[in-house]
Write a structure and sequence with these properties.
alpha/beta, FAD/NAD(P)-binding domain, three-stranded antiparallel sheet, 4 helices, globular, binds flavin-adenine dinucleotide
């Protein structure tokens, strides 16, 4: 199959969204395929793509200013270290503002990308199991390669219990340490 002038974007997390915004602004045609039913990737808690590592109490550890897109800063009323809900809402607003949603094919997984001639052949599979192959001049893919890996704690505490204990301790001016094997302990200093 001859390669087309289009670019293929794999995934509609922050990498795919920004790639789409920049390509769109430069008039470069592209298709974006997203395995899940919504944008946001890692920052969509309980994402039905099965790939998000977000946990209930997740906040960013880079600051709001550092993580903001230049073309669309985070709202001024956001905290310095927003939660995953803030970040997902922020991505929703970004996608809305730049008309990105209509360019994304949701529930469609890229299952193969092979270099052919001066381009790429990309095979995608929809939720119905049907496969299609298209030619592209380039393929852009971001995303961490790992599957989610949530720790389990020896005495059965789950993440929500631990997050609650950490927050309560911080309010009371105490510190706790958490380790994977012996779970929650109050620090001595
Ligand atoms: C727990 C945790 C905390 C983090 N904290 C921060 C932070 O504070 N600040 C920071 O800047 N970064 C942080 N990161 C890094 C994080 O990876 C980035 O913020 C961001 O999510 C990367 O965006 P991405 O689009 O590259 O990947 P993702 O957000 O993972 O999005 C990838 C998208 O591609 C889709 N996809 C994957 N494979 C396919 C396929 N074959 N076909 C179709 N679609 C596919 C997925 O469904 C997903 O929507 C953190 C990561 C983790 C795991």
């Amino acid at each position: 199959m001859a390669s087309s002038e289009k670019v293929c974007i794999v995934g509609a997390g922050s990498s795919g969204l920004t790639a789409g915004q920049v390509l769109g602004a430069r008039g470069i045609a592209y298709d974006c395929f997203e395995k899940g039913s919504r944008i946001g990737g890692n920052w969509r808690y309980e994402n039905d793509n099965g790939l998000s590592s977000a946990y209930r109490s997740l906040h960013i550890n880079s600051s709001r200013e550092l993580m903001s897109f230049r073309a669309h800063p985070m709202p001024d009323d956001y905290p310095d270290y927003p939660s995953h809900e803030h970040i997902a809402r922020y991505f929703d607003a970004y996608a809305e503002r730049f008309g990105l949603l209509e360019r994304i094919r949701f529930n469609t997984e890229v299952v193969e990308a092979a270099p052919v001639g001066d381009g790429w052949e990309v095979t995608v599979q929809g939720a119905d199991g049907e496969r299609e192959t298209h030619g592209y001049r380039a393929v852009l893919a971001g995303g961490p390669p790992e599957r989610p890996d949530y720790p389990t704690f020896a005495d059965g505490h789950d993440e929500a219990v631990i997050a609650e204990a950490i927050q309560a301790s911080a309010r009371e001016g105490r510190w706790v340490t958490v380790d994977r094997t012996s779970s929650l302990q109050e620090a001595t200093e």
